[in-house]
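#struct-pred
JK: can someone run the complex with flavin mononucleotide? inputs below
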Amino acid sequence: MFDSEFSSIEFAGMKLANRFALAPMTRVSAQANGRANELMVDHYKRYAEGGFSLIITEGIYPDQDASQGYENQPGLADALQVESWVPVIKAVHGAGAKIIAQLMHAGAQMQYNRFDKQPLGVTAQKPVGKPLGLYGDQEAWLEPKVMDESDFERVLNGFLHGIRGAVEAGFDGVELHGANGYLLNEILSTHFNTRDDKWGGEMQRRAQFVIDVVKAAREMVADDFVLGIRLSQITITDPDYQWPEGEEGFNWLVQALAEAGIDYIHTTDNDANRPALKDGARSLAEVVRDAGIPLIVNGGIDGTNYAKMAAHYPGALLALGKAALADPQFVKKVEDGDKPDALDFAMLQPIANVENEMRWRAEQED
Ligand SMILES: Cc1cc2nc3c(=O)[nH]c(=O)nc-3n(C[C@H](O)[C@H](O)[C@H](O)COP(=O)(O)O)c2cc1C
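RT: done, structure tokens with the ligand placed:
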């Protein structure tokens, strides 16, 4: 039979039931000590049961340093945090899906850090706009400490520490968060990275640290442990930023990441298909697709356009954020020809935690 987006697929070495992935979404619902809990087991399990064949977790902090960015964010930084993910992974695997841990260093976007660290920045540049009320109530961005040589080393080791924790917990892989204005993204961005030492300059130089992390991670983990990266130009508060190097620079970056051993590249944009780069007509996802690198595409995919997107990006996974939030049963419903629920942002108020969502859902049933 003709393969559709609902057919099983081999992606980056994983056998998946279909081409639908849950996009990473911060839900600030862990214990204050960063351990995953029962609420999170049920939360992730419902997406696996709803038909998503790959679950990408919310951004998880990998170390006990400056990587944590939000209160009640989960970690993979200590043994009990690692252990706390085991029931989540078991539940997702039990429902037939795979699960990848997104590892995130908050960088200058830190809104809360229980180790009482100052944000770490590639320079002292603060993000544009204001912190997100969705994740807590900080009024203004804090001044970042500028990374020195030892900070680069500590951040790299922090990522490796988190990856070891992810392996031990039983995740199928990790995704490095290089998107949306968090530290790895800031290092790639000329809004933040205006350094004039070896870590700054043109794309080839700005990307060196990210490539170093990928290489070190690849050397450390087994071949069948999936190592992905998420990339964007936009940040959580800046929808307009573009790398100055355009398509050529981005194409160089994706090839360099592939050579460094990345298994997939996950692009995110407000609209996955928009011409994204300073010059040229291609979207970020189209550049990765055309480079022949396993692609997860994200941005604006919903019940009306998923089939077109699947055809436009052959062999790629479609990652859904808001459409999945709106309806954890999305995949099952669209496969059956039913209309998925629409998103009501009220479910994420006053902050985007699972408890508020559950309260909102219960109110809808009353
Ligand atoms: C509540 C919420 C939390 C998010 N948290 C993360 C995150 O932890 N890591 C990440 O890479 N993206 C995060 N995102 C971005 C989504 O993964 C996705 O890229 C974005 O919503 C656009 O895709 P969509 O149009 O399918 O929603 C978050 C989005 C939302 C709505």
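RT: quick notes.
Residues 23-26, 58-59, 102, 177, 179-180, 230, 268, 298-301, 320-323, 348, 352 surround flavin mononucleotide (CB under 6 Å).
The chain has 13 helices and twelve strands.
JK: thanks, will look after standup
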